[in-house]
Amino acid sequence: MPQPTGDHEEVVGFLAFEITRECIRLNLPYFIPIAKSFIPI
Fold it and tell me: What is the CA radius of gyration of the chain?
């Protein structure tokens, strides 16, 4: 299966980065796995 590309991948990357940054800032023990994090319905 080819790697996903396109604008939606930039959005997913941005959201994962922002959520992870907030978890670090708030010292929360969570992480966001990138693969299959956001699947269109």
Answer: 12
Handedness of CA 9, 13, 14, 19 (dihedral sign): positive
User: What's the CA angle centered on 23, arms 22 and 29, to 5 degrees?
Assistant: 175
Quickly count helices (H) and strands (E) in the chain: 1, 0
d(CA 23, CA 19): 6
What is the Cα–Cα distance from 28 to 22, expressed in whole angstroms?
8
pTM value > 0.85: no
- At residue 4, the pLDDT reads 63
Task: Give residue for tokens 């299966």.
Answer: 1
